[in-house]
Design a protein that fits this description.
CATH architecture of the largest domain: Orthogonal Bundle
Shape: rod-shaped
Oligomer: single chain
Number of domains: 2
Strand order of the largest sheet: 4-7-5-6
Helix content: 40-55%
Low-confidence stretches: none
CATH class of the largest domain: Mainly Alpha
Largest sheet: 4 strands, antiparallel
Strand content: 15-25%
């Protein structure tokens, strides 16, 4: 994931890490802007901004001759940790935004599929030879507590189970392991007479 840091901020963090790791010690003077610019391959102005970042955090001071003096290892460590936390928070926000966008797309597609399924009957009314039907699993049904696979639903009825309405839940293209419950409404399509055949099989 792409970083949101500016170049001078990244350089400031790198210098702080070097100070925190003891590469530069307290009281030591490090290279002026020109040499630092050459080391990092950036302009002197970018180095000035990076050093100003560290100066504001009380990690270094800058003399009139623009020499950079190391003031605190502890402040450098705190600075590095703080920047790492900020970067982590920013990355998590970016990831959350991506996930929310994906969730929105999934929800929109889900709503679209639900709409199509719930209006399946109306859309298929004039299609022959297949006819849509909805069969309710009655309290006395022999299918209660059995899975679609156990019932051999397709083999016994020659119907295609499109969905199951279960209260406010809609199970689209149900898995063969789904167990039927009392009150389930089976949305099926098949040849002429499919309603009677499925109802007779389920509720016998």
């Amino acid at each position: 994931m792409k970083s949101h840091q500016y170049i001078h901020e990244s350089i400031a963090v790198d210098l702080a890490e070097r100070i925190a790791n003891g590469e530069f010690v307290i009281g030591e003077k490090i290279s002026g802007r020109t040499l630092l610019a050459s080391h990092y391959g950036v302009s002197s102005e970018t180095i000035r901004k990076a050093v100003a970042f560290l100066r504001a955090a009380n990690i270094v001071s800058v003399s009139q001759g623009k020499e950079v003096l190391i003031l605190s290892t502890e402040q450098a460590k705190e600075f590095v940790n703080h920047q790492a936390d900020m970067q982590s928070a920013y990355s998590l926000r970016q990831e959350l935004e991506i996930l929310l966008e994906k969730k929105k797309e999934i929800n929109e597609r889900f709503d679209e599929i639900v709409y199509q399924i719930t209006h399946y009957t109306d859309r298929l009314k004039n299609l022959q030879p297949f006819n849509p039907a909805e069969v309710t699993v009655q309290a006395t049904s022999q299918a209660i507590g059995k899975s679609i696979k156990q019932l051999e639903f397709r083999q016994r009825t020659s119907a295609t189970l499109v969905a199951i309405r279960r209260g406010v839940e809609l199970i689209i293209s149900p898995d063969p392991e789904v167990v039927l419950q009392q009150g389930d409404k089976l949305v099926v399509v098949g040849l002429l007479g499919v309603l009677e055949k499925v109802d007779s099989f389920i509720n016998k």
